[in-house]
UniProtKB/TrEMBL annotation:
UniProt name for this protein: ABC transporter related protein
The keyword Magnesium belongs to this UniProt entry's keyword annotation: no
Keywords, comma-separated and alphabetical: ATP-binding, Nucleotide-binding, Transport
Transmembrane parts of this sequence: none
Organism: Stackebrandtia nassauensis (strain DSM 44728 / CIP 108903 / NRRL B-16338 / NBRC 102104 / LLR-40K-21)
CDD domains, per the entry: ABC_DR_subfamily_A (cd03230)
UniProt superkingdom: Bacteria
Length: 316
């Protein structure tokens, strides 16, 4: 089932077309929205929240039309904005409690939800300190907590890993995954870091210049290819194992592409596995690895990205 449907959505600013006839459905679960800086991700989120009006096209969020039901949508959706927006002289506990009260929760429930969400994002210890002294990672966690505090059905997270170091980024990605697995909340998360989405998202939507490039389940995007990846060793300790394996495989009629010690062999059918095993054994070598290669999201993006727009995309 879709949480969001988008039909021919267009947003033109005076000099830029930020969204250009975008049509796509966002399924339940964790959905990654990926694109280089300026691809239109934040513009799309603001339109879906009813905070900005599209130039043309239509969309619905959780069954509500964005043109007529902004307040209903904002009641059911949590929003973590991209940029810093936290008052520095206030503590996380006060701020998240305030956001819970604004969402309409009575004081008791707001206090309970504030404690629960701050615990979930790992900010219990520091919750009474003023946020001006927080690290970037802690600020991102407060922004996430305020998006979750009113128990939404869906959250929009705009670049939640921005400014985080690799450890902080991994922790944030785990938190995002748990929002769905533990609480059943669907997530639309934006990023320009393609590698992040492979393990966090169930589905990935790729946009560029406000246009749709691809919308696929992560499984489909990273599905197995028809290439086998192979690594060998010489039990006698010889250093030329890969060279010898390559020569033997080619003599058996198999095509081999080399990348250092790794060999890539096109598989015609399951019998290719047997041919490789027998050929390698016959050459007196041992198999370290023999498996199907997989697509990576970054490669798929690279195949589709018009020249000149890739330099903003980080594939790490
Ligand atoms: N209020 C505005 N007025 C004019 N142009 C705008 C406005 N907001 C966004 N834009 C332009 O629209 C395009 C899309 O911007 P948007 O912020 O949606 O991209 P993004 O994918 O979220 O990138 P980023 O992560 O850098 O914010 C950009 O060219 C941007 O400069």
């Amino acid at each position: 089932m879709s949480t969001i449907t988008i039909e021919a959505l267009t947003k033109r600013y005076s000099r830029v077309t930020a969204l250009d006839q975008l049509t796509v459905d966002v399924p339940e679960g964790v959905c990654g929205l990926v694109g280089a800086n300026g691809a239109g991700k934040s513009t799309l989120i603001k339109i879906l929240l009813g905070l900005s009006t599209p130039t043309a096209g239509r969309a619905s969020v959780l069954g509500y039309d964005i043109a007529s039901h902004g307040p209903e949508i904002r009641q059911l959706v949590g929003y973590m904005p991209e940029h810093d927006c936290l008052p520095p002289d206030v503590s996380a506990a006060e701020f998240v409690m305030h956001m819970a009260r604004i969402s309409g929760l009575p004081t008791g429930a707001a206090r309970e939800r504030t404690a629960d969400t701050l615990r979930h994002v790992g900010l219990m210890e520091e919750r009474y300190r003023r946020m001006g002294g927080y690290s970037t990672g802690m600020k991102q966690r407060v922004k996430l907590a305020q998006a979750l505090v009113h128990d939404p059905k869906l959250v929009f997270l705009d670049e939640p890993t921005n400014g985080l170091d690799p450890v902080g980024r991994d922790e944030m990605l785990d938190l995002i995954r748990r929002i769905h697995t533990k609480f059943g909340i669907s997530v639309l998360v934006t990023s320009h870091l393609l590698g992040e989405l492979e393990r966090t998202s169930d589905h990935v939507i790729i946009i560029d210049g406000g246009r749709l490039l691809k919308s696929r389940s992560t499984g489909e995007l990273t599905s197995q290819t028809h290439t086998l990846i192979l690594e060998v060793l010489d039990p006698a300790g010889g250093a030329d194992a890969a060279d010898r394996a390559q020569a033997s495989l080619e003599a058996s009629g198999l095509g081999v592409r080399r990348a250092g010690e790794l060999m890539y062999v096109p598989a015609t059918d399951e019998s290719t596995f047997d041919s490789i095993r027998d050929t390698v054994a016959h050459a007196g070598l041992g198999l370290v690895r023999l498996q199907r290669d997989r697509h990576h999201i970054a490669e798929i993006f690279a195949e589709n990205t018009p020249e000149g727009s890739q330099d903003h995309v980080v594939t790490g």
